[in-house]
Write a structure and sequence with these properties.
Helices cover 7% and strands 38% of the residues. By secondary structure, the chain is mainly beta. The two termini are 60 Å apart.
């Protein structure tokens, strides 16, 4: 219930407030808006795909990958059912040199070695702050899964 507030000015300059209960129900969906809300023109922009480039280099959050070759399953584990993963941090210097730091290795040592070897081949453009390259980092999780 919503309470409506009515103010009455009485003779002699006395102001009196009366509270009158009024039944109300919440309205949902399209009925909840005014027709005038739908009269605005809608500007439709074409879909834009940007792969590896920051739209605003002043707000770039990390290095931009140029090449990311994925690790291969080592021959010693070929044909076996796998569901393993590793987590690494890639430190990319302002000169675009990559350092791989293993945060969580795979359960299979061979997969960790394969992952490190592949990640060492990744190349990046350094993170930018305005027009200046800066040191940056990103965290990568690689999931090895076979059936």
């Amino acid at each position: 219930m919503i309470v409506r507030h009515l103010t009455w000015l009485l003779a002699g300059g006395i102001v009196c407030s009366c509270l009158v209960p009024i039944a109300a129900q919440a309205v949902t969906g399209e009925e909840a808006t005014h027709a005038s809300d739908h009269e605005e023109d809608v500007l439709e922009l074409p879909e834009v795909h940007v792969h590896g480039l920051s739209l605003n280099k002043d707000q770039q959050l990390g290095p931009v990958a140029k090449s990311t070759p994925w690790p291969r399953i080592p021959p010693s584990l070929d044909g076996k059912e796998l569901d393993d993963w590793m987590k690494v941090r890639l430190l990319v210097s302002r000169e675009a040199k990559v350092t791989v730091v293993v945060l969580e290795p795979c359960n299979h040592r061979e997969l960790t070695v394969a992952g490190i070897a592949a990640l060492g081949k990744w190349t990046f453009d350094p993170q930018m702050k305005g027009d200046d390259p800066v040191d940056g980092e990103l965290t990568v999780r690689i999931h090895f899964r076979t059936r």
